[in-house]
Amino acid sequence: MTIQLKRFGNILASRPEGREAALILIANELRDSTDQVNLDFSGILVMTPSWLGEFVDTLESKNRKVHFMKSQNASVIASIQTLQEMDTAIKSATKS
Fold it and tell me: What is the value of pTM for the model shown?
């Protein structure tokens, strides 16, 4: 299932808003779905790692697989890279 994130606004900045957006999505559209969630970033002007991290963590805590669609937006790219770096660091720390 593809989710257009612009429906939550074109400036996605705060952690609480990211969590709220994910919970609304789960309650209304993903309740019975186990499909992979494809995140479409078109129309987003600004995104922070905190919004995206909370959104993704909330979805994944409900056993949803999340896929990032390609974007040319610098803040989206930086947010995705930050999440991936944090994930790598956490995995490395838990191996030690």
Answer: 0.89
